[in-house]
């Protein structure tokens, strides 16, 4: 199931039942997991590791050198998990020495046409990245996040799980988990209620998340004061996850528009 026009380096390891389309190139020291389908005119760069059952569509460039002026050709890697869909003309770069020389993409992600994922990004699972989304270097993306069409994320931002970023949004600070962000200069617009319900969250769980959101964004408090009040809430995984996210934030968090 490997087209005769494909060019595959002798060091590449290919699993069972892999398809490689016409005129695709797989460079040295890469690994392609079982059940992967690679379309035509795809380039998979050196030191790229794909798990099982990934679908890479026509014209995608996966594991290209990082677009960073500090990169001097050192050995770097891209690791992708299982069951990801990568649509036409997506680009994903390898890591740099300013990170740990790795870019990592988890499993069950859906990455649509013309999206770009830059060097040293750490992406979790079950994310949807819509057409033309541009993600800068060193961005940390948790799980179950939706990025609307044409949105962009500044380097070194953190995006919390179950967040929703609206189409055309510019994200230059961290997006708190479970929140809805939108606008040319992103602001928080509340809780991502539709996304939470679609993922099976109960009314009680959503109510807990709303309380956290109210403390952070709807009361005139400093971030330290908000963290102190959140600490006083009853124990919950949502409280603990949000607090851990806030403690790790270095760029500050996107706020609600006043």
Describe this structure in a few short sentences.
Helix content is 16%, strand content 26%. With 258 residues, it is an alpha/beta fold. GO terms for molecular function: acyl-[acyl-carrier-protein]-UDP-N-acetylglucosamine O-acyltransferase activity.
Walk me through the structure.
It is a single chain. By secondary structure, the chain is α/β, with parallel strands linked by helices. The chain has two domains: 7-138, UDP N-Acetylglucosamine Acyltransferase, domain 1 (3 Solenoid), CATH 2.160.10; 197-248, Udp N-acetylglucosamine O-acyltransferase, Domain 2 (Up-down Bundle). The protein has four helices and 27 strands. The protein has helices at residues 193-198, 203-217, 223-231, 237-248, and strands at 7-8, 13-14, 19-20, 25-26, 31-32, 37-38, 43-44, 48-50, 55-56, 61-64, 77-80, 85-86, 91-93, 102-105, 110-111, 116-117, 122-123, 128-129, 134-135, 140-141, 146-147, 152-153, 158-159, 164-165, 170-171, 179-182, 187-191. It has a ten-stranded mixed beta sheet with strand order 3-6-9-12-15-18-21-24-26-27. A nine-stranded parallel beta sheet has the order 1-4-7-10-13-16-19-22-25, with no helix packed on it. A hairpin with a 4-residue loop joins strand 26 and strand 27. The longest helix has 15 residues, at 203-217. The protein is elongated. The N and C termini lie far apart (58 Å). The model has no long low-confidence stretch (mean pLDDT 96). This is Acyl-ACP--UDP-N-acetylglucosamine O-acyltransferase. Residues 174-254 form the UDP N-acetylglucosamine O-acyltransferase C-terminal domain. InterPro entries: Acetyltransf_C, Acetyltransf_C_sf, Hexapep, Lipid_A_LpxA, Trimer_LpxA-like_sf. GO terms for molecular function: acyl-[acyl-carrier-protein]-UDP-N-acetylglucosamine O-acyltransferase activity. It comes from Paenibacillus taichungensis.
């Amino acid at each position: 199931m490997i087209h005769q026009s494909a060019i595959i380096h002798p060091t590449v390891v290919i699993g069972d039942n892999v398809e490689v389309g016409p005129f695709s190139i797989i460079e040295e020291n890469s690994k392609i997991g079982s059940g992967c389908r690679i379309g035509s005119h795809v380039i998979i760069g050196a030191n790229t590791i794909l798990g099982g059952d990934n679908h890479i569509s026509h014209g995608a460039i996966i594991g290209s050198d990082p677009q960073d002026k500090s990169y001097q050709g050192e050995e770097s890697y891209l690791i992708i998990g299982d069951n990801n869909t990568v649509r036409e003309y997506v680009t994903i770069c390898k890591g740099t020495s300013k990170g740990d020389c790795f870019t990592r993409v988890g499993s069950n992600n859906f990455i649509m046409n013309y999206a770009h994922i830059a060097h040293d990004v750490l992406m979790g699972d079950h994310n949807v990245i819509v057409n033309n989304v541009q993600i800068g270097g060193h961005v940390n993306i948790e799980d179950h996040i939706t990025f609307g069409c044409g949105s962009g994320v500044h380097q070194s931002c953190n995006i919390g799980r179950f967040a929703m970023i609206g189409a055309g949004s510019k994200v230059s600070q961290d997006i708190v988990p479970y929140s809805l962000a939108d606008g040319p200069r992103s602001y928080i617009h509340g809780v991502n209620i539709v996304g939470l319900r679609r993922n099976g969250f109960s009314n009680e769980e959503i109510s807990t998340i709303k309380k956290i959101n109210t403390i952070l964004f709807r009361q005139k408090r400093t971030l330290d004061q908000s963290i102190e009040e959140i600490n006083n809430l009853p124990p919950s995984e949502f409280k603990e996850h949000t607090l851990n996210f806030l403690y790790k934030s270095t760029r500050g968090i996107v706020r609600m528009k006043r």
